[in-house]
Amino acid sequence: MSTVAPPSAPEANNRVKAVFDDIRATRKSDFVNNMWLWLAFDPDLLERTWAEVKVVMATPSALDPLVKEMLYIAVSVTNSCGYCIHSHTASARTKGMTEAQHADLLRVISLAAKTNQLATALQVPVDAAFDSKSEQ
Amino acid sequence: MSTVAPPSAPEANNRVKAVFDDIRATRKSDFVNNMWLWLAFDPDLLERTWAEVKVVMATPSALDPLVKEMLYIAVSVTNSCGYCIHSHTASARTKGMTEAQHADLLRVISLAAKTNQLATALQVPVDAAFDSKSEQ
Amino acid sequence: MSTVAPPSAPEANNRVKAVFDDIRATRKSDFVNNMWLWLAFDPDLLERTWAEVKVVMATPSALDPLVKEMLYIAVSVTNSCGYCIHSHTASARTKGMTEAQHADLLRVISLAAKTNQLATALQVPVDAAFDSKSEQ
Amino acid sequence: MSTVAPPSAPEANNRVKAVFDDIRATRKSDFVNNMWLWLAFDPDLLERTWAEVKVVMATPSALDPLVKEMLYIAVSVTNSCGYCIHSHTASARTKGMTEAQHADLLRVISLAAKTNQLATALQVPVDAAFDSKSEQ
Amino acid sequence: MSTVAPPSAPEANNRVKAVFDDIRATRKSDFVNNMWLWLAFDPDLLERTWAEVKVVMATPSALDPLVKEMLYIAVSVTNSCGYCIHSHTASARTKGMTEAQHADLLRVISLAAKTNQLATALQVPVDAAFDSKSEQ
Amino acid sequence: MSTVAPPSAPEANNRVKAVFDDIRATRKSDFVNNMWLWLAFDPDLLERTWAEVKVVMATPSALDPLVKEMLYIAVSVTNSCGYCIHSHTASARTKGMTEAQHADLLRVISLAAKTNQLATALQVPVDAAFDSKSEQ
Predict the structure, then answer these.
(1) Does F73 share its domain with F116?
(2) Domain residues for E24?
(3) Can you give the CATH number for the domain in which F87 is found?
(4) Range E114-133 average pLDDT
(5) Measured CA angle at B11 (ends B8, B12), to 5 deg
(6) Same structural domain for residues A82 and A41?
(7) Using CA atoms, how far apart are residues B94 and E77, in angstroms rounded to an integer?
(8) Contact residues, chain B, for C109 at CB < 8 Å
(9) What's the number of domains chain D is made of?
(10) What is the pLDDT of residue E1?
């Protein structure tokens, strides 16, 4: 069950078709996952979302593509977004995540959530040493 | 302001002193940050928390130490834990995070939060292709 | 699957029946959605929850009924409450939300989640200009 | 810094004065904490919030008053509400929470956050044994 | 305290100056709030964030500008982003939010958080009536 | 659907078998719920998670076992972890939680979420009276 109905013939819309074509070309795969099909209910939202995902996730940058997928998983788990956890775990595997790395990812993000609770419950004051001074 | 008073002479307690000594030795630094001082109100909680942080964050594993710090930041930001964001951003810098990597980290975790909202608002159904089949 | 069993004959209980009758009268509809059926496991909780929802959501106030439904969706998405997202998206449609407004709602709440991450990750200090001074 | 200015003479308003008087009488203390002073910017919101807090937290019920305060802390920490963590930790102490109970509370809520991440990251399917069947 | 140091002379950078000039022109005000100053540590992140905020929040669309600010507040409160709550409450006031509307906003978003907890705790199944069927 | 495949013959692995045996012995039940089966994809993660859950939840401590289960539910609901809500509600029932206590738990955690929103939206300053002074 979902809150909008995806278009039954999405690629009849030229703007949607252009985005789907670019997704397939960028990923070198025929598979267009449901997220994009559902966003196609509003072509502007689809275009802008894909444009940003392409720039941030599919363009070489200061971080490794697999690291970026694991960061995506970390946020999606903390926000309890089931769809996103599934899609980005699948992407991370495609980009080479091993089972040992997956387990390590789980160890880190579950420990982070645990110590977040401790620091927040205690309202620990931030050490002065952690401050970033203004550039001189 | 915090919700417990940290002990005024924490290292007078042998269990606390042993943990603080191990923190200094592990990190090769005299600096023991406030999180540990505040956890010292309960030596058992201090010991167990440090033991786990040491195993997960300070022991070689399938993920790079800097990647683990960035995952920690991703969770801490999503949980809005100010203390943890400060302490793990500082740790990430110590482990070599550049300004460009920091900006890229922000790009990824803010985009993840954004698309989490979209997938959750639409209640997009999970693609069958994302399922992990049981091992044969 | 749910964590309590809804009563099999809820309206055999007079307090439950009175609430269900008022829900139907207020909404001018025979449909009583599952939330109320499940809350009926405890008539006091049912009565108080409905009383508050009726006052806040079904009574004329400073905000338009459709705006209130969209605010409800914004919170429910951020909290990842699937049931609430479904029920309040349906209510917003009943109150006239167009597809263009729905897309705009998604644009705003996903951007808000994104910039929340940025401001929190940077721990941006609040501008003095934003403070509310005490009344004179 | 806050987003509304609390009234400079709150008890000049009769509705506010009646609530403040009831807070003092219920708690047998002259201290009215900032939450109520800030809510006084809208007397209706103040009255309804206090009425609900009084019924749920200050009226004998199926759960012990100290347990209710600790549940309040658990939610407030998970939501990262600094004000609420402070006020309900103080209330829990007033109702007898020992330092050992406080440490135990932290152990449980931090472990819960940790295993929440694990179950969510793995998307573990709910066991059929956990379902609540409809009453017969 | 913050996790990056804002540039000491941000407008010496042409890309930053162009964004700040556009913020001032769009808002018809000389005030550039801290969020943009801090984002200026990475001009690309600054440019992209402002471009998106301008399109979504400062361009006429299907929703009223004040409604968009209130939705922003709703998400920011739920994510506990102090900076964002301050800045968007100030913006909402600039766009005409009355004290009565502010109180009503608080009533709705706090009730939503409350019933989110109830529906999630009960794991209420979604009514079939809420499903959006595919377009025919 | 889940993100890892649980092992098809988990107890063929000695480390997994030892943990499952201990779960059965500790709980005096043959039932090993899915959480442990799924964690068995990484025996180290399984061992450490069970060891911590056993110490915190199944060992006598300053808090009553039922209170600990209810705290677990409070956090799990706030984090929207469906699996955890189901498993810990079932555990709480096993430990004696009555329907009246369950309803009271819901009243408290939903009120907490509501007032969290109010305090956060108002950015109420913490009262000096709530500070914990350093021990003398």
Answers:
(1) yes
(2) 8-59
(3) 1.20.1290.10
(4) 94
(5) 80
(6) no
(7) 32
(8) 117, 121
(9) 2
(10) 87
Interface of chain E toward chain A, CB-CB under 8 angstroms: 1-8, 48, 126, 128, 130-136
The length of chain B, given as a count of residues? 136
**Would you say the pTM of this structure is higher than 0.90?**
yes
Cα–Cα distance for residue pair E5/D129, rounded to 1 Å: 54
Q: Is residue F109 part of a domain?
A: yes
Q: Which among D66, D87, D77 is positioned nearest to D111, based on CA atoms? A: D77
* Nearest chain D CA: its distance from C58 CA (Å): 17
- Where does the pLDDT of residue F135 fall: very low under 50, low under 70, confident under 90, or very high at 90 and above? very low
Q: Show the tokens assigned to D78.
A: 């998970």
Last-in-domain residue among A27, A42, A59 = A59
pLDDT band at F20 (very low <50, low <70, confident <90, very high): very high
Per-residue DSSP letters for D20-87?
HHHHHHHHTSS---HHHHHHTTSHHHHHHHHHHHHHHHSS--SS-HHHHHHHHHHHHHHTT-HHHHHH
Q: Locate the chain C residue with the closest alpha carbon to D128.
A: C1
Residues A31 and A48 in one domain: yes
Please tell me which of the candidates F89, F109, F118 has its beta carbon nearest to residue E110: F118
Take residue C110 and report the two structure tokens written for it. 């996903």
Residues B114 and B92 in one domain: yes
List chains adjacent to chain B, taking adjacency as at least 3 C-beta pairs closer than 8 Å.
Answer: A, C, D, E, F
Query: Taking residues C17-31, what's their average pLDDT?
Result: 97
Proportion of chain C above pLDDT 90, given as a percent: 95
CB neighbourhood size of E64 (10 A)? 15
Question: Is position E30 within any domain?
Answer: yes
Q: How far apart are CA A95 and CA A89, in angstroms?
A: 10
Would residue A135 count as lying in a domain? no
Q: Do C110 and B122 touch (CB under 8 A)?
A: no
Phi, psi (5° rounding) for residue E124? -65, 130
Are D2 and D55 within one domain?
yes
Handedness of CA B128, A67, B134, F80 (dihedral sign): negative
Enumerate long-range contacts of A59-66, CB under 8 Å, 24 or more apart. A61/B104, A61/B107, A62/B98, A62/B100, A62/B101, A62/B103, A62/B104, A63/B70, A63/B101, A63/B104, A63/B105, A63/B108, A65/A95, A66/A92, A66/A95, A66/A96, A66/A97
Q: Are residues A83 and A99 in the same domain?
A: yes
Chain E residues within an 8 Å CB radius of B86: 1, 3
C66-81 in b/e form (b: 16+ CB < 10 A) is bbbbbbbbbbbbbbbb
Judge whether B3 and F129 are in contact, CB under 8 Å: no
Q: How many Å apart are CA B57 and CA B53, to the nearest integer?
A: 5
Confirm whether E1 is domain-assigned: no
State the Cα–Cα distance between residues C75 and C89, nearest whole angstrom. Answer: 12
